[in-house]
Amino acid sequence: MNIKTRQLDKQRIQELKDNQLADLTSYVQQIETMYGELRSFRHDYHNVLISLNESIKSKDLAVIENTYNQVLNSEGLTLDDDHYSLARLDGLKTLPIKGVFSAHIIQAWQKNIPVHIEIDDTIQDEPIEILDYVRITSILLDNAIEAAEKSENPFLTIVFLKNQADKELQLIIENSCPNEPIDITKVFKKDYSTKGENRGLGLATVQSILQNYTNLSLQTEYQLGVFRQVLMIKEEISR
């Protein structure tokens, strides 16, 4: 049994490494695309500013307005803030977690779900085993994207907050969801799901993992149309 257990552990670690590599590869490719677009953006706007400068010298408002409409509006030279928000993940220094979030954010974009990201501090050295961390965040993000996709006005918000006084990290995942009643007291039960039969395993798995830690807790909030999960990680770890 010990040999079998070690084999299963090695298999899970290898799967984690493979997923991490795939997620980080996707993240790097997205960043490279963004940098390429920014270089093009800078080149285009350099020429636009030259055109506007000549118009401004004329001090003719009609000429300036005409140049603006012809060059800027017709070319559609604007920055999509949501598209470039992936760069905000730079604060995540735990690479497997950065990979998980980047992969899910790209997945949300592909489903036309706007994503808002706030990471104002450097996030690293979280006191939780990496495999558990990946499983928890993946489940929470999977659920958030699936629910948001079904809502009338989809959105996904991801926030990392550091509370220096309490030595606590908060991961907030908030998403839109259908305007249907959800019993918060049941969502962590193994067989409960709003998605149909044999689907109520994700949050039950999260709950099972949390029970192994004294420094982790999860706060769940729901209002019609909005579902919110707050994962709280204390710096001190005791298992």
Describe the model.
It is a single chain. The chain has 5 helices and 5 strands. About 5% of the residues have low confidence. It is elongated. It has about 240 residues and is of the alpha+beta class. Strand 2 and strand 3 form a beta hairpin. It is about 50% helix and about 15% strand. Strands 1-2-3-5-4 form a 5-stranded mixed β-sheet, covered by helices on one side.
Q: What Rg is obtained from the alpha carbons, in whole angstroms? A: 23 Å
Mean pLDDT: 76
Low-confidence stretches: 196-201
Number of strands: 5
Instruction: State the order of secondary-structure elements, H for helix, E for strand.
Output: HHHEHEEHEE
Distance between the termini: 24 Å
**3D shape:** elongated
Helix content: 40-55%
Beta-strand content estimate: 15-25%
Helix and strand topology:
Layout: H1 2-58, H2 61-75, H3 95-110, E1 115-119, H4 130-149, E2 156-163, E3 168-176, H5 202-210, E4 216-223, E5 226-234
Helix pairs in contact: 1-2, 1-3, 3-4, 4-5
Keywords:
239 residues, alpha+beta, 16% strand, five-stranded mixed sheet
What is shown here, in short?
The protein is α+β, with helices and mostly antiparallel strands and 239 residues long. It is built from 5 helices and 5 strands.
